[in-house]
Specification:
The chain is mostly beta strands. It is about 5% helix and about 60% strand. It has a 22-stranded antiparallel beta barrel. Strands 3-8-9-6-7 form a five-stranded mixed beta sheet. Strand 11 and strand 12 form a beta hairpin.
């Protein structure tokens, strides 16, 4: 059973607080539309667990990057193996890092319609319309890349009305950022048949570390540039075309670990964590074909990524008589992905509607890994060049049937095949081919105009793969696809007066042939013997609860709450001498909670307080070290006029020290004891933001 501890008290107290507040006269809430599903639909009518964070909520919280938004979203975690989140976990399902091998993400990540699954660090939120998070397997919608769920960032669409939004901010840690968004009609008459929107944003900061050996404050710094250009064309004949172009250049340093687990580093060769991505998407819709909607989505992305770091986290002077000791690792990755999705969607006719689609994707990735170092008189160098390509194809369909006027039954199915090829300079070659299927069966029942009940049974899947390295035993060179069964029951409400909204769902997840990532070091004195392995456990399971509530308490005060509770465990899994049967998954906290209060008065003054908490979690599968619970607070105060605003803010107000990644291994000569090394989240930051809207 779930432990009845702090989160239950938190939920009960907050629910009572909200109930009293909702008795006051509020302003209405906006209806939320989810675009990451196969059909755009309201969140209340979607038989799935979903969180939608609007652009207004992003602005209210002074959020610049998705990382700052994650504490507000139930069941969503991330692993800090990079300068910005690349690796997400939904309900404990997801990767912690990717150091080698083939990309095989468990959580899908889209910016508009462009796929950045597994490389999601370019998640700037300037001029974003909303962030959508679908929890649970999205087997029909997105297939093998969405075993745990799907995250979509939807940017603002072009409109015919002339618009200009500008923003600038300064803060501690050397922060400065500036952005501008402009748009309007392309034709001089402003009739709206063609419109455009352009966005440019840059954010720079020192990265909350000081390298005392080099005497620098910027070795972990951030320099993040985002540019977007979107066009919308519409015709009287029923055609609509959305063309999007984006460029992101996140040129960040990476000097985040210290031998003493502090914020003062000693690296003599700081690393880089950069990603430069160019993306294009074309979304075509035709609605003039006998009541059918034809939709074609084409997306292409090209990304260059560097992930390098000083692996000994020290320097020759610091190691003294225990040295000389030096180790540096660098991975240069180039990824190109092209996808085409074509679907036909019917209108409702006599209680029935349907959709059918076909999808194909081709991904190519090259990696160049270069490791070098020295211990005593032994120098080591490792170079590995690899090429990976995968072509995936799928057909899918979905049927909606109105069983009664208030009860809808939905059934979906997806058949997918992935054909991959891999080879590297060590002579490893793999050519796996996986045929997989997934889908869902759901029921939605309307309880009057304001509430609905829903239930679903879904099956997700994730492709198999392989482990590289000459030291990998032959019987562990490859691993099988994973399948996931998920059962959910839920309730949703949007009050008739739109004063308040809420949802609650219960879920049970069963993972078959669960893919588990582990690591070990064969020789404590030779870092090149460190192996990363993925294999299949017999199974795993998780169960829990997710809830959220929101309401305009008065004309001046809005309150919101989010909560998730979960228990997870491996079933019959052993790795070497380790027996993990019954242990919780890595990065799968048992509870997570957030509450926010936004106050505004008629004179223009505002205040926003965000409180969030999260239970401790296991850092990894290869060891049993566990973090402690954490609690964070953000505060924002400001004045807002008709066309401009100014705000002061504090993130991590009480300067909480909390870990986002932990490694347990031998890294200190001459005895090389196993120790826990932690990467900390961002400490307190103070700043000022000015905005102008015209």
């Amino acid at each position: 059973m779930l432990r009845q501890s702090g989160p239950f008290i938190f939920l009960a107290a907050t629910t009572g607080w909200l109930s009293q507040a909702f008795a006051l006269e509020p302003a209405p809430l906006a209806e939320v539309v989810v675009t990451a599903s196969l059909r755009s639909t309201t969140a209340r009518n979607l038989a799935a667990s979903v969180s939608v964070i609007s652009g207004d909520d992003v602005s209210n919280g002074a959020v610049q990057h998705l990382e700052e938004l994650l504490p507000q979203i139930p069941s969503l975690s991330w692993a800090g193996a990079s300068s910005r989140p690349r690796y997400f976990q939904l309900r404990g399902i997801g990767e912690l890092e990717q150091y080698q091998g083939a990309p095989n993400p468990s959580v899908g990540f889209l910016v508009d319609e462009i796929d950045f699954s597994g490389i999601g660090m370019i998640a700037s939120l300037f001029d974003v319309e909303q962030v959508e998070v679908l929890r649970g397997p999205q087997g029909t919608r997105y297939g093998a890349n969405a075993l745990g769920g799907l995250i979509k960032i939807k940017t603002r669409d072009p409109v015919a009305t002339p618009d200009m939004h500008a923003e600038a901010a300064v803060g501690s840690d050397g922060l400065w950022m500036a952005g501008i968004a402009v748009g309007g009609a392309l034709d001089s008459r402003g009739e709206g048949s063609a419109s455009w929107r352009a966005v440019l944003h840059r954010a720079v900061g020192d990265g909350f570390r000081r390298n005392s050996f080099l005497g620098r404050d910027d070795t972990n710094g951030r320099d993040e540039l985002t540019a977007r250009l979107k066009f919308r064309f519409e015709t009287e004949g029923g055609w609509r075309a959305d063309l999007g172009l984006m460029f992101a250049d996140f040129d960040n340093g990476y000097d985040a670990f210290a031998i003493d687990n502090g914020l003062m580093t000693l690296s003599d060769r700081p690393g880089r964590d950069s990603q430069e991505s160019l993306g294009v998407s074309l979304d075509l819709n035709y609605s003039g074909w006998n009541g059918l909607l034809l939709r074609s989505v084409t997306a292409w992305a090209d990304s260059g990524i560097e992930a390098s770091f000083d692996a000994d986290w020290g320097n020759e002077t610091g190691w003294g008589a225990a040295g000389p000791y030096d180790f540096y690792s660098s991975t240069l990755r180039d990824r190109r992905a092209l996808s085409q999705d074509l679907r036909i969607i019917s209108a409702a006719n006599r209680g029935w509607s349907w959709l059918a689609g076909a999808w194909i994707s081709h991904l190519e990735e090259t990696n160049r890994i270069a490791d070098d170092g020295l211990y005593l008189e032994n120098a080591f160098v490792r170079l590995l060049d690899s090429d990976y390509s995968a072509t995936s194809a799928a057909v899918y369909g979905e049927i909606d049937w109105s069983w009664t006027p208030v009860t809808m039954v939905t059934a979906g199915l997806r058949l997918e095949e992935r054909d991959a090829q891999y080879d590297d300079s060590d002579g490893s070659q793999f050519d796996p081919r996986d045929r997989m299927w997934g889908g869902q069966l759901s029921l939605t029942h309307q309880l009057g105009e304001t509430q609905s009940l829903w239930a679903s049974l879904s099956r997700g899947f994730r492709a198999g793969g392989f482990n590289i390295g000459n030291s990998v035993p032959p019987e562990r060179r490859s691993f099988d696809p994973e399948y996931l069964w998920n059962v959910e029951f839920g309730w949703k409400e949007l009050a008739r007066t739109k004063r308040q909204s809420g949802d609650l769902n219960l879920f049970y997840t069963r993972r078959e042939h669960q893919q588990v990532a582990t690591s070990l070091q064969l020789d404590p004195e030779d870092p090149l013997t460190f192996l990363y392995l993925t294999d299949n456990s017999a199974s795993g399971e998780a169960w829990g609860l997710e809830a959220s509530a929101r309401g305009q308490a008065t004309g001046q005060l809005e309150l919101s709450l989010a909560l998730s509770l979960m228990r997870s465990r491996y079933l019959d899994y052993r790795f070497g001498a380790r027996d993990l049967d019954g242990r919780a998954w890595a990065h799968a906290p048992e509870w997570k909670a957030a509450v926010a209060a936004t106050w505004r008065n008629s004179a223009g003054w505002m205040a926003r307080l965000d409180l969030s908490g999260e239970d401790g979690f296991y850092y990894d599968t290869s060891h049993d070290r566990h973090s402690s619970p954490r609690f964070l607070a953000n505060l924002r105060l400001g004045f807002e006029a008709a066309s401009w605003s100014i705000h002061v803010w504090a993130s991590n107000l009480f300067d909480e020290r909390y870990p986002v990644r932990g490694f347990f291994f031998a890294n200190e000569p001459p005895d090389f004891p196993d120790r826990l090394y932690l990467r900390w989240g961002d400490p307190r930051q103070l700043g000022l933001t000015v905005r102008y809207q015209h």
